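Kindly go through the entry underneath: sequence plus fold tokens. Please state briefly how this chain folds according to its tokens.
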Amino acid sequence: MTQPQPGPAPTPTPVCPRHPDRIAYVRCQRCGRPTCPECQRPAAVGIQCVDCVREGQRAQRPARTAFGGRVTDGRPVVTLTLIGLCVLSYVLQLTTDRWTSELAFAPFIGETEPWRFLTSAFLHSPGSIVHIAFNMIALWSVGPFLEASLGRWRYLALYLLSAVGGSVMFLLLASPFEQSWYTALVGASGAVFGLFGAVLVVLRRVGRSAGGIVAVLVINAVLGFVLPGVAWQAHLGGLVVGAALGAAFAYAPRDRRTAVAVGSCVAALVLLVGAALVTYAGV
């Protein structure tokens, strides 16, 4: 008499590893594990689980621009933030005179309150909305292009160092025996001219015409000597710093872009601080 043979063991119902309470008959094309609808991600062929997608993203090198900056979603976040800070600061200037007096730069006070070298770039003349309007329009005209080309951190460093460069040049060309030593400096013009200087170099590097930017620079240079109250010294300082940093960013060797960018920013800051210290030491 033969005994009946036992049948094959029933196959366990597949469940999602991340959600064991959910039945999952769809398997990841990469690792083969079951994956529930919440953990499924469409791939070029079939479906992948979220873990495999995340692992693949970590393995990919981030896309870079022609100058080494990380490619972003295209939104000029830094430019919009800078404009927002300038507008907010302008509103505060209209609200209280102390905001301007505490943050504006003047050579006689820069040594004891060095933050003014930078904060003055976020102030504008409270008596003229044209001042801030012109600077913000100029910032918007070149800022998004440079932000996308250089990457956000290079662009922000360029803007801030150009702003400081404008204040330092204003200090270098002032005299403690003249009214210029006690004249307040406000405005983002130094930083904006730094962007102009950088975009000239960047456009040349990629073989594009920079005629429009040159025309803007010439017009502003003439206005700086014709119109009263225009700090052409800050324009010059920002332009020099911006052009120098733009050249360092644009012409850095491909395999040393980050090192050159960081080194050039540090070198620019050291030179600017050193120039200010030497000037004050000689007063």
Remarks:
- Residues 15-54 form one domain.
- DSSP finds eleven helices and two strands in the chain.
- The mean pLDDT is 87.
